[in-house]
Amino acid sequence: MMKVALGQFAVAADWETNQKQCLELIERSKTEGADLLLLPEGILARDINDPEIMPRTAQPLDGPFMEGLKQASYGIAVAGCVNVPDGQGRFFNTHFVMKDGAFIALYRKLHLYDAFNMKESQRTSPGVDLPPVLDIAGMRVGLMTCYDVRFPELARHLVLEGAEVLLLPAAWVRGPSKERHWEVMAVARALENTCYVVAVGECGPRNIGASMVVDPLGVVTLALGEEPALGFATLHRERIAHARRILPVLENLRFAAPVLTPVSADA
Length: 267
What we know:
By secondary structure, the protein is of the alpha/beta class. The protein has a single domain, classed as Nitrilase/N-carbamoyl-D-aminoacid amidohydrolase. It has helices at about 15-30, 55, 65-70, 150-160, 180-195, 235-245, 250; strands spanning about 1-10, 35-40, 75-85, 90-100, 100-110, 125, 135, 140-145, 165-170, 195-200, 210-215, 220-225, 230-235. The strands form two sheets. Strands 1, 2, 3, 4, 5, 6 and 13 form a seven-stranded mixed β-sheet that branches. β3 (about 75-85) and β4 form a beta hairpin. α1 (about 15-30) runs parallel beside α3. The protein starts with a strand and ends in a 15-residue tail after the last helix.
């Protein structure tokens, strides 16, 4: 089994404040014996009144923000998303996992949020590689980011590659029925793949928070509200085995595994 911590908070406009918040969540998660702490998307800096803050404040993976988190990650895995310069004036929305002072996985977000009158691709470069599946506390974990949850192909790919848990950091924007979308799709990705989904949302003035854990039969076992919070849940491999025994959708699958479409040269 694996104990996970879900640390949702409102991201501030300066990285020093956000780093302090992350370090506090890491220490509290260690005290509670968590194997993994999942943080939201875009934890370096956020200001809804300053659309240029993200490219302006992006830092390399060896910058001061991430170095501080790496030093605190001894004894626990820490995951979340930061903006990393792409060398051409834009940035990659990068999902990281670190443990014991080192990165153990990185994933650049594939699906950029060009929807609901927003256009993430104006400032963000798309990833071109599928996310990894890695081992954490004896369980196989796959990485997704926010808008990725609307694309069931990515979740199915990860599960066919062996993932038992999907990590989903997000900054899910409020809007008509948007909270419902978040819950429905997190539950659907878990249920249709008989896996756990651990989803953590930023909870600032624009975003909903609403972090949750969904089990392999679609049961929401932990649900946080819209305020900053740190929640804990235990994931059981026996629950996965039970779900896959009584609901063998992966065995009954008649479609080929999803294939990633290459991004166009002018994206």
